[in-house]
Amino acid sequence: MSDGIGPLFSLQGRTALVTGGSRGIGRALAVGLAAAGADVVLTSRGEVDETAAEVATLGRRVDIVDVDLSDVDSVRDTASALVAERQIDILVNNAGVIDRNEALSITPEGWRGVLTVNVEALFFLTQAIAAPMLDRRAGKVINLASLLSFEGGLNVASYAASKHAVAGVTRALANEWAGRGVQVNAIAPGYIATDFTEPLRLEPVREAEIRQRIPAGRWGTPRDLVGAAVFLASGASDYVNGHVLVVDGGWTAR
Q1: Average pLDDT rounded to a whole number, residues 112-132
Q2: Among 94, 93, 87, which residue's Cα sits nearest to residue 15?
Q3: Which end of the chain has the smaller Cβ count within 10 Å, N or C?
Q4: How far apart are CA 237 and CA 184, in angstroms?
């Protein structure tokens, strides 16, 4: 990379807030953004010490904020307190939950649980974090969408609904905020080998069906998403707005 291009992707001097950073995609994105120069704030109900330690080894500041994304009022209060204390330049809405059930077996509680974390918490966290970005006329929001932002999936109706909503919210906020200096985009991962997808990978027939349809011939890894995240978090994407960037090994092309 030439000296002229490198600064476009640098996150030096910026702070990124990453939700769900304890493992999998969230951990990879937090570490990847730190490697590009960003300080990191991690929010997770899980254990994030290992992620924090990895970020710290890169020489970046790392802070941990405990927040329950199933409690929207708590999300709003925590986010408001955070932005009152420090500047957040990049928001990565990675945290999400899934309920694998046939449609006839989904309960109202289960449905609401998925939609609350995956859509409501995402929206209201973004609302609070983006307000100072809009005042500064500078900021990046990256939402984690899914292939199920475009498809219906199998036995994951609530998750599919939530990820369709994430794509819609991404575009709606981009329409409002692009002219005010804040870029809102999303990454739609394909089939990534994480704890989230372990049930699929443990089904030999289903796993083989999925892998055979992926032109790359393999499941993705969390690291495969880092480049997309750094791009969308950096100055290289200043004219990219409302885009859902698919990183799927070619799944949607087949």
Answers
A1: 98
A2: 87
A3: N
A4: 10
Q: Which two tokens stand for residue 188?
A: 């739609």
**Residue 228: pLDDT band with limits 50, 70, 90:** very high
Q: Give a yes or no: residue 39 inside a domain.
A: yes
Tell me whether residue 240 is in a domain: yes
Range of the domain at 142: 6-193+223-246
Q: For 18-34, what is each residue's pLDDT tens digit?
A: 999 999 999 999 999 99
Tell me how far apart the alpha carbons of residues 195 and 172 are, in angstroms, rounded to a whole number: 31
| Spatial CB neighbours of 23, under 8 Å, sequence gap ≥ 6 | 46, 51, 194, 195
What is the pTM for the complete model shown? 0.95
Q: Which is the catalytic residue, given 123, 159, 231, 251? A: 159
CATH number of the domain enclosing 147: 3.40.50.720
Number of domains within the chain: 1
Q: Is 159 designated active site?
A: yes
Model confidence pLDDT, tens digit, residues 134-144: 999 999 999 99
